[in-house]
Amino acid sequence: MRASAWRPGCHSSSVSRAGRxxxxxxxxxxxxxxxxxxxxxxxxxxxxxxxxxxxxxxTAPRSAHRRGKGEKANKKQMSYVGAVYSIARFPRTADxxxxxxxxxERAKDRPRPQHKHxxxxxxxxxxxxxxxxxxxxxxxLFAGLAVECQARDPEREKVLICLxxxxxxxxxxxxxxxxxxxxxxxxFHVNERLWTAAHCxxxxxxxxxxxxxxxYLRLLLEGKVDSVIRSFRQLLVTRRLTGEKxxxxxxxxxxxxxxxxxxxxxxxxxxxxxxxxGVAEGACRHxxxxxxxxxxxxxxxxxxxxxxxxxxxxxxxxWSAFVDHxxxxxxxxxxxxxx
Length: 339
Description:
This protein is α+β, with helices and mostly antiparallel strands and 339 residues long. 43% of the residues lie in helices and 19% in strands.
């Protein structure tokens, strides 16, 4: 077992008596090198948390606004979920990926992520910052990802991969904090856009729509992103799309064009890199949705962040260490000495 190190993202978000999380790091041992895979993967995604309405003074005028169709009474604030894990290489072919995605044939001998560590951050006030300033959740998350990757691979012997969807803010932060990482656009989001494009020309669930997706997904997996973009632009003109269908196809073209540098799937597959962000999607579900989006739940900012930290301790298997740390803090605060 390697010596203990301060693990980012394992913020010992001890909840103070005032109910505010105090951000400290809990000393947890790093994973044994023998249990780590060849590749080190960092991933991030956003998930909304339903928030309480701020209380208004009694003198404030009541709004006469009537909600429109589909408009919700509550608003969400984004939490940003990150994960770091290692994994073995797993070379595949375009045909194998097509079988997985279109024919639901799970790949045999797929390696499992090792020592997955997840956490989440929201933009919020912080006592260490000047009054009125906010701790920027996505930046704080990526700083933690960078420190975790450095701690788990100090000699930079592993290939570092950053696997995300197309949110521009997150890719800008990747360039700042994880510049050496191989940037990979999540294939599941790419595939969703293909289905959107297919339904501009063919009805849903039709064999024609599936053939459309299979044709263009194969091209993308072969690294021919430019060919797909050119073909879609031609279809935009020759098929004379208008209205919503034109808007959806143009959005798909723009998405691929903006992310083409992260879509070298032929190279990624040959090198055995992961190309799907299932870990991030699962973390968003288990860490945020399953606990903070139950029926009728509304959160204050401080309460939501504290719950995200506590939930992360539990999911990461750090609950006992957190409780011990919490007891020591309380002993020190009450009696001036640790337990």
